[in-house]
Write a structure and sequence with these properties.
By secondary structure, the protein is mainly alpha-helical. It has 5 helices and 3 strands; from the N terminus they run H-H-E-E-H-H-E-H. It has one domain.
């Protein structure tokens, strides 16, 4: 399980969506206070679902097709999360709501998407290898 590269990508995606949102703020207000993902329930739910899907993908290492489908769903969840961040930053940005700086936490879904795409490529490669070996039997 751990020797496969997609497991490493999935563990990194799990860390990006499960640990790093606690460390990096989404926004910094003009008064210096930082807004984390827990301030909005929708962000919390989406980050939690993404983390759960990454963990399930790691645990379903023998079922490559299920891993592939769950990764696609996880990519979709991260795209929705990224879309919400972009929508919020474009519609409510500027000094009208006292947001002076966007945080690095807004870019965590992009990193997670890249890692999940790399994991899907490795899963596909493994699946093709298994199919080619089955043909030889």
């Amino acid at each position: 399980m751990i020797q496969r590269i997609q497991t490493i990508y999935l563990i990194l995606a799990l860390l990006v969506t499960g640990v790093l949102p606690y460390l990096f703020p989404l926004w910094t207000m003009s008064d210096g206070s930082e807004i984390y993902f827990m301030a909005n329930m929708l962000y919390t739910v989406l980050f939690g679902l993404s983390t759960t899907l990454s963990l399930l993908c790691i645990l379903f290492y023998k079922k490559r097709q299920n891993q592939f489908v769950m990764n696609r769903l996880n990519i979709l969840l991260n795209l929705i999360l990224l879309g919400l961040f972009v929508y919020y930053s474009l519609n409510l940005s500027g000094e009208t709501v006292m947001v002076s700086e966007k945080g690095i936490g807004m870019f965590l879904p992009i990193v997670a998407i890249v890692l999940l795409v790399l994991a899907n490529k490795a899963i596909k490669k493994d699946e093709d290898l298994v199919k080619s070996v089955d043909r030889l039997r």
